[in-house]
Design brief:
mainly alpha
């Protein structure tokens, strides 16, 4: 009796589905953009890495996790360049010609 020997690669088990409670969004962001969330959290993580103090107490030691929690709670201010008011024009300086 011959036994079949096959080398089957084991397929990793699928990851658990994302809970709806874990939706990544910035409070007050009308578009609920995940891309914007990531950009804001990344900039905040850089600020934390350069020495700024965290605004929340999180059990995580990684600064990226702290930045994500701060962003999720709406503690990180951000400005959407598309909806931001245009910058005020600088007043021209008066040149005084000495004649």
């Amino acid at each position: 009796m011959k036994h079949k020997t096959t080398t089957e690669a084991k397929v990793p088990a699928p990851k658990a589905p994302v809970k709806t409670d874990d939706i990544i969004a910035i409070p007050g962001d009308s578009e609920q953009s995940i891309y914007r969330f990531i950009v804001v959290a990344a900039k905040r993580a850089r600020q934390l890495q350069s020495g700024q103090r965290p605004k929340v107490q999180v059990g995580a030691r990684k600064l990226t996790r702290v930045a994500i929690e701060e962003t999720r709670k709406g503690l990180v201010p951000f400005m959407d360049p598309e909806t931001a008011p245009p910058p005020e024009p600088a007043e021209p300086e008066e040149s005084q010609d000495e004649e």
